[in-house]
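One-letter codes give the sequence; the fold follows as tokens. An example follows:
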Amino acid sequence: MNKISRIISKSTFPTVRMAHALTISIIADLLDYVGAPVLGAPIMGDLFDFIVISYLYSITKSKVVLVINLAEFVPFIGDLLPVYTVSTILWILRESGYDDLISAKKVLRYISMFVFNSRKVH
């Protein structure tokens, strides 16, 4: 019985945590982008950021994710980049065994190119 519970906790629970954290971070970034008029107010936006950062930290228990998510409090960086999604993807890569710095740089480069290219006016 103990062996079965270890197998289940090693395979299922981390995957559910990763999916939950990624879902929350994508929704939070979308709300941050779409709800800019409401969440752009200093008190409301900071309260929203604090709640999301606390919730993501409770899921991931990662100090790296916490520090990266603190970039949401920087006025223009938090508005332009999907900080929650990037930090969660980096956490998923680290938890999955891709702890290489090159992988993290590639993810950040790809997401920043995608965000900045999609916001250009044609």
Observations:
- Residues 16 and 95 are 13 Å apart (CA to CA).
- The chain has a mean pLDDT of 79.
- The first helix runs from residue 2 to 34.
